[in-house]
Amino acid sequence: MEKVLKPMSGYLALVFCLILFAGAVFFFISGVEQSITFVIIAMLCFLLFCFFLKGLMIIQPNHSRVLNFFGKYVGTVKDNGLFFINPLYSSQKMSLRSENLQGQTLKVNDKMGNPIEIGVVMVWKVGDTYKAAFDVERYSDFVKMQSEAAVRHLAMSFPYDNLEDDHAPITLREGGDKINSILEQELTDRLSKAGIIIQEARISHLAYASEIAGAMLQRQQATAIVAARTKIVEGAVGMVDLALKKLSEENIVELDDERKAAMVSNLMVVLCGEKAAQPILNTGTLY
């Protein structure tokens, strides 16, 4: 588990290092002119200067240092500033800033077996430095690989649209925020072992694969045409029924069944035709 450390300020240690360095210079110059003992003292001061200088570290905002002591995890420093730690500690830099990942467009099969192209963009950051440093090898590569696996699993779990599966409660094309929430949860479950926090995940590209895109477009157009024609026919039937009732209620004209059928046929042609009907004037009698 991650353990956050609060190391001592490094300003006092920095002053001490400067004093050691100044002492090393002073004793070295004095030793050259007077005695070899001063040279030895200068060398000791310089060695101590190098030793304590190794314990100084500067941490930038939204960065951290993971500390180890001969292979044992000591803790993580997340504060920013100048600090002094045990010079024998080894440290690993780790960024805590949010990062964008624009995944490559993947070609996979949806739930119905149709080849589709899908791509995602996600925002992530390191939440647990211990897991990111020690539970996985190169956590940035782990994020890329697991994000692709999550996208493939999402695409295979839902149909692209409801053309083939009319009873599908969620589709990739119309799922919207629901699909994005499922994607975020899938990424969170996969990347939690690396201490990664998913802040946002969205589908950035979604389309049929090129080899079936044309056929699917024709199918969508046909479906739209059928739906439009259905609405037109429903409206035309209502208008014809209204016209017959008005003619009967107002006693404008009495029509037998044969004439009613002809009138219905003519009105349906006029109302449902794609082009405007050409009127023909009848100057004779109705019969």
UniProtKB/TrEMBL annotation:
Task: Give start and end of each Band domain.
Answer: 54-220
Ranges annotated as spanning the membrane: 12-30, 36-59
How does the protein's chain sit in the membrane according to the entry? Single-pass membrane protein
> Sorted alphabetically, which InterPro entries does this protein's record hold?
Band_7, Band_7/SPFH_dom_sf
Q: Which SMART domains match?
A: PHB
- Which UniProt keywords are present, listed alphabetically? Membrane, Transmembrane, Transmembrane helix
For whether the record's keyword set contains Membrane, the answer is yes
UniProt subcellular location: Membrane
Q: Which Pfam families match?
A: Band_7 (PF01145)
* Gene3D superfamilies (alphabetical): Band 7 domain
Matches recorded under PANTHER family: BAND 7 DOMAIN-CONTAINING PROTEIN, MEMBRANE PROTEIN-RELATED
Protein name stated in the entry: SPFH domain-containing protein
Native source organism of the sequence? Chryseobacterium herbae
Species lineage: Bacteria, Pseudomonadati, Bacteroidota, Flavobacteriia, Flavobacteriales
